[in-house]
């Protein structure tokens, strides 16, 4: 007799969810929830009739505000459909920790979001924790730092000669290869995966300028110029400069020992070694 697959709702079907799909299909009947499939978290009326034994929530919050109404709409739709999934996995951001002045950060550190995007993510985490705890649903939160892959490298920024901070002003930044984050999602959805919060990061503990140098070297381009923080406002776009205001080094011990994930790309050096430069620019 054929095994009946569990139903997985994938709320948000971006790059990481697409990479996770082949890992999930052997165990799950997957429904891709995105605007392309008529599933719009900004329009609650499109969420009727949900069916799910588990949920992978990869949808980002809206670009404005201090809360995440998309997560609220998802939870309300599950409630309305009387769906109680056995497991919920949410891809969040390490930005919820805020600026840690370069300290090594594990999951016991209190959240202290300082940017609007991180405040919205912290709100989503709070909503999910309250909803899942009240209903006895296993919740896994994967706090991801800068996600990279061959087609997610800041090559355009290097080509443009956008400056980075000099060493004494620079910040520590963490990374995860998109394939490793997809593998973490798949592992977190397995029934024996312990619930809780995980820093979904690799072993790299680089300053941002060091990361940009590695990208430049890999692409065969000149390394970015250095500037003092006092000059940065005039030479670095505000959206990018906001990433240079927080410094932390993520500890991924829990991801490896508790969740049991073995990273395919333990550092960005291994990840870049296998990357063919595509030229797409993403925040580091």
Structure characteristics:
284 residues; alpha/beta; Rossmann fold; six-stranded parallel β-sheet; two-stranded parallel sheet; 10 helices
Apparent shape: globular
| Structural class category | alpha/beta
Q: What do we call the CATH topology?
A: Rossmann fold
Rg from C-alpha positions? Answer: 19 Å
**What is the helical fraction, as a range of percent?**
25-40%
Strand order of the largest sheet: 2-1-3-4-6-11
Would you give an account of this structure?
- This protein is an alpha/beta fold.
- The chain has a single domain, classed as NAD(P)-binding Rossmann-like Domain (Rossmann fold), CATH 3.40.50.720.
- Helices cover 32% and strands 18% of the residues.
- It has helices at 15-24, 69-80, 116-135, 155-159, 178-188, 208-219, 229-235, 238-241, 253-257, 268-273; strands at 6-11, 28-33, 54-57, 87-93, 104-105, 138-144, 146-148, 164-165, 172-173, 175-177, 196-199, 206-207, 226-227, 249-250.
- The model is unreliable at 278-284 (pLDDT under 50).
């Amino acid at each position: 007799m054929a095994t009946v697959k569990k139903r997985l709702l994938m709320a948000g079907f971006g790059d990481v969810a697409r990479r996770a799909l082949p890992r999930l299909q052997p165990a799950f009947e997957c429904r891709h929830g995105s605007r392309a499939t008529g599933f719009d978290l900004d329009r609650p009326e499109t969420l009727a009739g949900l069916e799910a034994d588990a949920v992978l929530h990869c949808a980002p919050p809206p670009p404005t505000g201090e809360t995440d109404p998309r997560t609220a709409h998802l939870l309300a739709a599950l409630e309305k459909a009387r769906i109680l999934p056995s497991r919920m996995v949410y891809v969040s951001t390490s930005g919820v920790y805020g600026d840690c002045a370069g300290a090594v950060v594990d999951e016991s550190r209190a959240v202290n979001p300082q940017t609007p995007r991180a405040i919205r993510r912290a709100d989503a985490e709070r909503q999910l924790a309250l909803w899942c705890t009240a209903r006895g649903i296993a919740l896994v939160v994967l706090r991801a730092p800068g996600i990279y892959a061959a087609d997610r490298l800041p090559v355009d920024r290097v080509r443009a000669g956008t400056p980075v901070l000099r060493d004494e002003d620079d910040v520590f930044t963490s990374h995860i290869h998109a394939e490793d984050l997809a593998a973490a999602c798949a592992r977190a959805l397995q029934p024996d995966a312990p619930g809780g919060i995980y820093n979904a990061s690799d072993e790299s503990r680089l300053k941002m300028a060091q990361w940009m140098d590695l990208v430049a070297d890999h692409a065969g381009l000149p390394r970015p110029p250095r500037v003092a923080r006092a000059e940065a406002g005039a030479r670095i776009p505000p959206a990018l400069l906001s990433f240079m205001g927080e410094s932390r080094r993520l500890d991924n011990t829990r991801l490896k020992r508790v969740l049991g994930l073995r990273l395919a790309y333990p550092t960005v050096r291994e990840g870049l070694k296998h990357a063919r430069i595509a030229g797409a620019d993403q925040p580091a």
